[in-house]
Design brief:
The chain is an alpha/beta fold. The chain has two domains: 3-93 and 192-216, 3-Layer(aba) Sandwich (D-Maltodextrin-Binding Protein, domain 2); 96-189, D-Maltodextrin-Binding Protein, domain 2 (3-Layer(aba) Sandwich). It is 33% helix and 29% strand. Strands 5-1-6-13-7 form a five-stranded mixed β-sheet. The protein starts with a helix and ends with a helix. The chain binds glutamine. The site of glutamine has 13 residues, from loops.
Length: 228
């Protein structure tokens, strides 16, 4: 939608998949909250409209954007060449790597992806974690729509590891000490906010909001003490 259309409907529709703490997750009051949600709220506030979060499986987010069912994707989504062919990405707003999570207190402690050969590994369908483990044919990949289900499978010993973004792995391990981060795989990913391909008006708006959030204390001081 154009900015005029978003203002006319009075709400910004942001698609996300909320089993990805601390970026987006369901809190104890059943609200979807997190780092990404605060960015989404900031964009909605600047547009002067309400924020509506649309909860979708991760692999449905890009199709939903292409079919105009949502205005933006904010979902810890890595900017990849393949995705950038079908959607437009904002400037990067977070750096990420993959990691391997296993059960605490067991001998199996993989330090690299190759150590997962011959093992069952849970991932979220359509993520970069799915892509990196699927490249190694000897790994038996089990795909889930929700990370909560992937970790349930790890807990119940039906898989040997979960592969996912490091910051999110750390959030799960902190909450559930029965899991441990066994390795970090340097993939050099960067998260971006996705808009419909060709919607440069909304993309520029989003980029401005992100740049503003990156402002240094010096810029903020100048803004505070000098008139524009
Ligand atoms: N950053 C990963 C990706 O883009 C995972 C994102 C997610 O699961 N929300 O594929």
């Amino acid at each position: 939608a154009t900015i005029t259309e978003i203002k006319a409907k009075g709400k910004l529709l942001v698609g996300t998949e909320p089993t990805f703490p601390p970026f987006e997750y369901v809190d104890e009051n059943n609200n979807i909250v997190g780092f990404d949600i605060d960015i989404a709220q900031r964009i909605a506030d600047k547009l002067g409209v309400k924020l509506e979060i649309v909860n979708l499986p991760f692999d449905s987010l890009i199709p939903a954007l292409m079919q105009n069912k949502i205005d933006l994707i904010i979902a810890g989504m890595t900017i990849t060449e393949k995705r950038a062919k079908v959607v437009d990405f904002s400037v990067p707003y977070f750096n990420a790597n993959q990691s391997i999570v296993v059960r605490e207190g067991e001998k199996f402690r993989p330090v690299k992806l190759e150590d997962l050969k011959g093992r069952k590994v849970a991932v979220q369908l359509g993520t970069t974690g799915d892509i990196v483990v699927s490249e190694i044919s000897e790994i038996k990949v089990v795909r889930f729509q929700k990370f909560t289900d992937a970790f349930l499978e790890l807990q119940n010993k039906r898989v040997d590891a979960v592969v996912l973004d490091e910051a999110v792995a750390r959030a799960y391990v902190k909450k559930f000490p029965k899991f441990v981060v066994s390795a970090v795989i340097d993939t050099g990913e960067k998260y971006g906010i996705a808009v419909k391909k060709g919607n440069s008006e909304l993309l520029n708006f989003v980029n401005n909001v992100i740049s503003e959030m990156f402002k240094s204390p010096y810029d903020l001081l100048v803004e505070k003490w000098f008139e524009k």
